[in-house]
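Regression test attached.
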Amino acid sequence: MGELVIEALGLRKVFRGTARRPGFGGALRSLVAPERVTTVAVDDVSFGVRAGELLALLGPNGAGKSTTIKMLSGVLVPSAGRALVAGHVPHLDRPANARRIGAVFGQRTQLWWDLPALESFAMLRDIFKVEEAAYRLRLDELAGLLELSSFWKQRPRQMSLGQRVRCDLAAALLHDPPIIFLDEPTIGMDAVVKEQVREFIRYQTAERGRTIILTTHDMAEVSRLASRVVLINEGRVVYDGSLADLQKEYGSGWKVRVTFAHGAVPPALPGLVGTAGGEHLFAGTDPAAQRHLLRELLDRDDVEDLQAHGDDLEDVMAAVYRKRAETTR
Amino acid sequence: MLTWRFITLSLKSAIEHRADFFFMILVGAIWQVTVVAFATVLITRFPGMGGWTPGAVLLMTAVRSGGHTLAGSFFMGARQIAELTLEGRIDAFLLRPMPVYRQVMLNYFHVPMLGDLVVTGVMFAIAARYLDLDWTPWRVVYLVAAVLGAMFLEAAVQTFLGSFALRHPTAKQWQEWTEDLMATFGSYPLNILPDLARAVFVFVLPIAVCGYLPVAFLTGHTTELPVPVWAAAASPAIGAVLFAAALRWWTTRLRRYESVGG
Ligand SMILES: Nc1ncnc2c1ncn2[C@@H]1O[C@H](COP(=O)(O)OP(=O)(O)O)[C@@H](O)[C@H]1O
Ligand SMILES: [Mg+2]
């Protein structure tokens, strides 16, 4: 594995605001004696990402994912702790940092709302001082991968969500950054576009070697793209490791239900836990064992019906939060 | 040049909304015509204001209007910091290799300012005709400095207040209020005001810097000034100094930028 290119070292972010009291009297009192409210959005988050790795940052709403990404990308200055991107503190030299990273926040656009996307791209080319020849090549490639050319003359205002986010992805990569932050890039997309964007993200790590941090609520996406996940809850890391280990440690395991043809002699296969109503139930925790079993079963012609249940990642996550909550109490 | 790219961009997106574009220019023009008409009435009907000759009053209006027009062209973004923050645009600015302040200022080019520039020129011409002044090169240079000083003063005030809008969107109301105040009191010789109000506009919200003091110095109306003559003469520099201070304030506020949640 490559060297560490993104490091979160005890990151913490506390937001300080003033609470609004309801009503006119409340407004007056807030003016005279504002009530300070502090939100600990990120309490203590540490992890590292190696070059070429795709890390999925997961957690329930309000866990502190976006705030963590904003500190790592240099948008926010941490209240404590340190962010290091390619060995540099992002907010100290923003121009240099901007050239190293690309970022897409799924709910916001960095394109000019009233300009055709193509013109926004040209603006970014000039802002990032990308050579014309390199720009043409990259834009061609990105347009091909994301199928932009049918709508890139439109303004983001008129685009569908999927079109807009695809333009945003292209915009974030025009200056060819080795590091990318994606905060819920596929939120609200329909299945077809989602698949296209996922393939795009996969290509960017697997083929182009970019280092990516991705947040998402879509577990299918996680299992498809990420080998490593960091789970945060209430501003703290509750799990950092491989997806397979997470499933092994917290999953309830896999199950396979098989109905054999009438009169068939059921084979002696590992993992059999019981029979009920003509149905054979196999179960286990090792996903490799499940795959092996399924191959065996599919090769037989006396199997009439077969249902395989994997570990539902949503359930796994819920189990993690439950367990951690128990141990910290 | 990148700055020019941004300005043409703003113009382009303004022209895209064609109806708005021409409407804005029209409104700007009508507004300016009323200003000029009013100034003309001032000159022809009244013998002067607070001991000032009509030409001097008009010159002061022109300096302030020139500074305001330039501030509106290059620093209008300062008045949109609240919206830029709420829309998450500041986040995007922070992720580009270009100073955030420049991006904010270049974000919006106020189209009616094009018309204002012409009207300001007309006002200067009328004022010059009424004034019995020998326009030596150094007086011209001083006048240009006075206009720039007026621009920097307005930019400084709006940048200072706008910095608060990074975290408190309601600061926008203060910005608008101050803008109105400066427009209302910036165009008249301040010696028509009571001493206390005059002191406020010299030392607290130094509107005097953007017209009253430099034009008083330039036209020799120096007997009733609340400050020494040399200070009045140096007033264009004060705008620049305050602007530099406002920029530093902006930088410290930007470090404490909190973005928006969600
Ligand atoms: N700019 C902000 N000002 C105040 N509170 C914020 C801000 N951004 C986020 N928060 C709060 O911090 C917590 C974490 O938010 P966030 O990082 O957006 O979580 P996530 O992305 O995991 O949903 C939430 O309680 C949220 O309301
Ligand atoms: Mg979020």
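Expected vs. actual: identical. Chain A has two domains: 4-247, 253-310.
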